[in-house]
Write a structure and sequence with these properties.
- This protein has one domain (6-83).
- It is built from 4 helices and 2 strands, in the order H-E-H-H-E-H.
- The protein has helices at 6-14, 31-39, 49-62, 80-83, and strands spanning 24-27, 69-72.
- It has a two-stranded parallel ribbon with strand order 1-2.
- The longest helix is centred in the middle third of the chain and has 14 residues, at 49-62.
């Protein structure tokens, strides 16, 4: 196993909990999230790109700002989440 550089070690620490575990919110899926929204009470058969982007922004607001890392897709979630200041860090 290769020894981590200082930069790599700091990067790993920034996405890990104080105990060294990785806690990552995965919001990079599109089709799976669309299916979950569709199956939810009051869900719609046709989820627009804008609706999906808002759901992902809500995940960031309520979950990801408290997690060390979040996976986001560039097609729907980004750059809006960053540009709109939804992601605090």
């Amino acid at each position: 196993m290769n020894e981590l550089t200082t930069l790599e070690r700091r990067a790993l620490q920034s996405i890990s909990t104080p105990d060294g575990n990785m806690l990552i919110v995965a919001a990079d899926q599109r089709n799976g999230m669309k299916a979950a929204i569709k199956d939810a009470p009051h869900g719609s058969d046709a989820i627009t790109r804008e609706e999906l982007a808002e759901v992902k922004a809500d995940l960031v607001r309520h979950l990801a700002n408290h997690a060390p890392a979040i996976l986001l897709d560039p097609e729907v979630a980004l750059p809006g989440i960053v540009d709109d200041g939804v992601l605090s860090r």
